[in-house]
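Posted in: Protein Modeling Q&A

I'm a second-year student putting together a small comparison for a lab meeting, and my supervisor asked me to include a predicted structure for AMP-dependent synthetase/ligase domain-containing protein. I've never done this before, so apologies if this is the wrong subforum. The sequence is pasted below exactly as I got it from our records. If anyone can share the structure token output, I'd also love a short note on what stands out.
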Amino acid sequence: MLTPATCAQLAKSERALRLVGRLKYVAYAGGPLPDDVGNTLTRHTRLVARYGHTEIMSPLAYATEWEDWQYYHFSSEYANFRWDDMGDGKYEAVMLRNAKLLSRYYQPVFWIFPGLEG
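Accepted answer (user: helix_wrangler)
Welcome! Here is the predicted structure, written out as tokens:
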């Protein structure tokens, strides 16, 4: 898992790009990745955007198609988000409690804070 700043440095180095090309994928998290950096890296390997919070950890997400590297594809079964419209084209992810899941592993926020409705 790399930071966007580390990805930017890799994208500037031909040697690093050759080495990155040996990997099945590179995952990044911690902020947005500039388009030019992501597009450069995806010419050499698959790029996977990761998302996480202290309380929810990193919800299960699938790798997207190579050209869709800047998007998230969350598992509807294990991440179980509802997207609330906040206006201006922005949405807020609200994790919904799923009693069928082991909250400790897939929805830790409800294990840490059992009183949350979600």
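A couple of things worth pointing out for your meeting: The helical segments are 4-11, 14-20, 35-41, 103-106, 108-112. The longest strand covers residues 81-87.
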